[in-house]
Amino acid sequence: MESELQRTEKLQVVSEIAASVAHEIRNPMTSTRGFLQLLSHEGLTGEKRNEFIRIAITELDRAELIINDYLSLAKPQAEEITEIPLRSTLSHILNILSPYATINNVKLKIDLEGEASVVGNSARFNQSLINLVKNAIEACKEQGEVKLLLKAKDELASIQIIDNGVGMEEEQVSRIGTAFYSTKEKGTGLGLMVCYRVIDAMGGKIKVKSERNKGTAFTITLPNVTYHQKKPIQELPEF
Ligand code: ADP
Ligand code: MG
Predict the structure, then answer these.
(1) Closest ligand, as measured to the CA of 168
(2) Where does the Histidine kinase domain lie (predicted)?
(3) Ligand 1 pocket residue status of 73, Cβ below 6 Å
(4) Nearest residue CA, atom 21 of ligand 1?
(5) What does the pLDDT look like over 215-231, one tens digit per residue?
(6) Does ligand 1 lie within 6 Å of residue 28's CB atom?
(7) What angle (nearest 5°) sits at the alpha carbon of residue 172, between those of residues 98 and 100?
(8) Hey, whose CA ends up nearest to atom 8 of ligand 1?
(9) I need a labelling partner for 123 at 20 to 30 A (CA). Which of 19, 191, 200, 203 fits?
């Protein structure tokens, strides 16, 4: 159960982020407004008119991306906590993202070793994995390959997302997961922040290994409840 203090802390973080989200959304709103105003000028060529409409739509799309990514963190949905089986979850993520991999010319591979279950909100957990695999796909260049690995070993389950893409400098690695840090033209810089928050809330850890122009490996480790439920009987207290 979440303590009062944890809840207060979470609210504080969410409202701090809300303030910066509001700021980030104001920019595309302001420029959309500007372009709509320009549209009302008489004597505009059809070409200019189309260009202004296109820019306004692009800006609105950007605002929508930011709102969507933020909502996956702040949604006041009932926090339903369940046991999440990892094999089927990872296969599901692979299915969801294979069209995205295909259009980006990236091979998506999966290797599941053993079975494990973790405990958490499955919608948020799925969202976190999707964010990581999407990033891996987006990091790829030609001959791109993304591997999704599961290793279930006793009390810990580890999930790895490995790509052979652009990689990151150390300085970049230290900045990922902070709000709005993005190197992409259409990035929101909210995806990894959501991942870190969700995995942390599940009692897990995320490690990153990356090398420029070689690739990146994200490793998530989480307590494996399947193992903990099967603890040997001799661990019962002695009388
Ligand atoms: P976004 O994807 O919207 O940019 P994220 O929070 O998901 O935001 O990622 C933040 C930044 O971290 C990315 O813009 C990118 O620079 C870097 N990054 C994340 N994952 C990878 C990866 N697998 N390979 C290289 N860089 C990555
Ligand atoms: Mg992302």
Answers:
(1) 1
(2) 20-226
(3) no
(4) 135
(5) 999 999 999 998 767 65
(6) no
(7) 10
(8) 189
(9) 19
pTM, to two decimals: 0.77
Pocket probe mutation, ligand 1, options 162, 182, 195, 208, max atoms within 8 Å of Cβ: 182
Closest of 73, 74, 75, 108 to residue 91, by C-alpha: 108
User: Ion ligand 2 — residues with CB under 5 Å?
Assistant: 135, 191
> Per mean pLDDT, which of 21-35, 66-80, 140-154 is the most reliable?
140-154
Mean of pLDDT over the chain: 86
For residues 36 and 52, give the distance between their C-alpha atoms in angstroms, rounded to a whole number: 7
90: left (phi > 0), else alpha (psi -120 to 50), else beta? alpha
Please name which ligand lies nearest the alpha carbon of 196. 1
* Pocket of ligand 1 contains residue 136 by CB under 6 Å: yes
Q: What six digits make up the tokens of 179? A: 């709000």
Q: Is 72 in the pocket of ligand 1 (CB under 6 A)?
A: no
For the Cβ of 117 lying below 6 angstroms from any atom of ligand 1, the answer is no
Q: What is the pLDDT of residues 141-150, one digit of tens each?
A: 999 999 999 9
The CA 37 to ligand 2 mean position distance, Å, reads 33
Q: Judge whether 165 and 95 are in contact, CB under 8 Å.
A: no
Taking the C-alpha atoms of residue 197 and residue 129, their distance in angstroms, rounded to an integer, is: 12
Residue 119 near residue 81, CB atoms below 8 Å: yes
Distance CA 82, CA 95 (A): 22
Please name the residue ranges forming H helices in the chain: 4-39, 46-74, 86-103, 122-139, 170-175, 191-201, 225-229
| HEC per residue, 81-115 | CEEEEHHHHHHHHHHHHHHHHHHCCEEEEEEEECC
